[in-house]
Each structure stands twice: as C-alpha cells, then as structure tokens.
Amino acid sequence: MVPPLMRPGAWNLVVTLAFASLAAAHDGTHALPAGSSAALQRVVPRNWGAPSSILGHAPAPVLSHAPPPMLGHAPPPMLGFEPASRRSRAAEPADPAQYDALIREVAARHGVEYALVKAVIRAESAFDRLAVSPKGACGLMQLMPATAADQQVRAVFAPRENIEGGCRHLRMLLDRYRGNLPLALAAYNAGTERVEEAGGVPPIVETREYLERVLRYRLAYLREAAGVRHPAKPL
Predict the structure, then answer these.
(1) Catalytic residue among 124, 193, 197, 209
(2) pLDDT tens per residue across span 146-190
(3) How much is the average pLDDT of 201-229?
(4) Residue 56 and residue 34: Cα distance in Å, rounded?
(5) What is the pLDDT of residues 106-138, one digit of tens each?
C-alpha cells in the first residue's frame, strides 16, 4: 500500500496549502479552510517586494522640497511706536514763540541771556518738548540723563523743569569758562572733558556745526529784540 504522502498529487497539495498559509499571514487575514477554492485562487505568484497599489494608482510621491523660504522683509512696524520727536511734531506743531515768556523768566533768574537760551533750544530740539536724541538727550534743551540728574530735573519733558535745568547748566559752563561763549557752547554739546582735552573747541564736525548754528540763531534773536528785521536762516 502506498503511503498517503507518496500518492500522486499529494506533494502538490501540500505545497499549495503552504503557499495559502503564507499568503494569509502576509495579508494579515485568517487562513481559509484547506483545499477550498478561495485558498487555491489566492495562491498566485507575487512580487513580494512591490507595494500594492490603491485603485490602480501608484502611491503619491513624497515631496522632497523644503518649505518655501520666508520673505526677507522685516515685519511691519507696530503702530504707535514712532520716535517721540517725530510723533510730537506731527501732533503738536512747534511754535517758536510759545515758550518765549517762560524762557525770559527762567533765563533772567539764572543770569543767562534770553536770546542765547532760545537759540540753544532751537538748535537742540526745534522747540519740540518731547524730542529724544539717538544718544538719549531729552526735552527742549536736550538734557542727557546725567546732566538732568546733576541739575535735579525729574520731569525732563516738562518745559519749565527742562528749561530750568538747561539754564542752570549753561550758567555753570559760562562760569567755568569765564564767560567764553564758544567754549561754553562747545562743552554743552560735546562735554567739558573734550573741550579741555582739545584746549578749546574740539575738532568735531558736529560740535563746530552746532556752535555756528547757535551763534547764528542768537544773533538773529538779538536783532529781533532790537527791532532789526533780519530773521534767522531756517534749520
């Protein structure tokens, strides 16, 4: 008698069932009953390395492009954060005569010439009480924080306090340089250390231009006070 496994076709059935089991395991489904027509239909040659397609379409390729570069433009400026001097000039047009009475009062009290104080204010801030320089000088007479502290100015943008502090500072410089106006103005602009290191007006373009401008404005205000119509040149 021939053993069952040695009968014709027996090995083909074994191989068929083995392939059916492998196919079921690969597809993640339960094995179908051995010898069923469904099991036999599933035993088909496969290219095991190729992924199955969906609805006949190949999988969409993965984009390999980097995200688009960010535009190189700076973010738009925040509203309401303009420099103080620009904002104040737009909202409060400077009137050259609006502080005349205050300047006369404070200058007379400190023994400083009215025309000189007004000329300094015009050169420093163009009568903008909220002006702030890139270096941090503030107010009508552009007091630096150290100068404001020395002159006991707390509300640096208040016109009276600022002019008081500026007049006291000018009076101190005039006394230090024995009434030498060019030296006092050069020290007001560049500081006493630079004036003394240079032994006179320091060779700084900004300081020399500042000195020429203040002296020109002062002369125009003196002529105006004397009734001579010769207005100062524009800024």
Answers:
(1) 124
(2) 999 999 999 999 999 999 999 999 999 999 999 999 999 999 999
(3) 95
(4) 30
(5) 999 999 999 999 999 999 999 999 999 999 999
All domains in the chain, ordered by first residue: 4-41 (no CATH), 84-225 (1.10.530.10)
As a whole number of angstroms, the distance between CA 134 and CA 138 comes to: 10
Token digits of residue 109: 């009290």
Looking at residues 69-85, what average pLDDT do you find?
Answer: 40
Tell me if residue 124 is catalytic: yes
Contact 163, 104 (CB under 8 A): no
> Distance between CA atoms of 53 and 191, rounded to whole angstroms?
82
Q: With contact defined as beta carbons under 8 Å apart, do 208 and 201 qualify?
A: yes
Q: Give the span between the Cα atoms of 129 and 84, in whole angstroms.
A: 10
The rounded radius of gyration (Å) of the Cα atoms in the chain is 46
